[in-house]
Amino acid sequence: MLALMAERPSHGFAIAALTAEGAEIGQFWYISRPMVYRSITRLVERGLITAVGAEESDRGPQRMIYATTRSAKTTVSRWLSEPVVHLFDVRAELTCKLLLLQRRDASPARLVERQRVVIDGIEESLRAKEHAGDHLARAIYAWRLEHVRAARRFLDAVDVDSARPAVTTG
């Protein structure tokens, strides 16, 4: 939410439209309309966004327009550049970061490279344990190593030579 608000001053209705099921962001990262408005309230309470105006609405009351604070923009920029540290966060958090970088016309190359380093570390740790324990433990490590390989294939599919991540399938 904060990263979307950091793109430009906006109102909850616009953010909810982006994150609705099947929408540009919502097809990968769905946020319900009530959650959008609750999040806006929390972001205001934390001083990360402030009301900067209102926009007339043809359906209901005026829409409050919010902008992120300077420190919030810095926080978002830092977050967008940081790789995820847990393998299970690749599916949601990393893909979200890539989508947000694409919306900013920013290259994902540095993030992808940093993510590869993290994935390599996870693989190294798992490889050290893959032959330990009983058959169930070995099966679990094998399953987790498959996830490492899938994450690596995903990173390979991101077109790092372009400012727009292109995920290939097939």
UniProtKB/TrEMBL annotation:
Signal peptide: none annotated. It holds the Pfam family PadR. Gene3D superfamilies: Winged helix-like DNA-binding domain superfamily/Winged helix DNA-binding domain. InterPro entries: Tscrpt_reg_PadR_N, WH-like_DNA-bd_sf, WH_DNA-bd_sf. Residues 1-71 form the Transcription regulator PadR N-terminal domain. This is PadR family transcriptional regulator. It comes from Streptomyces subrutilus.
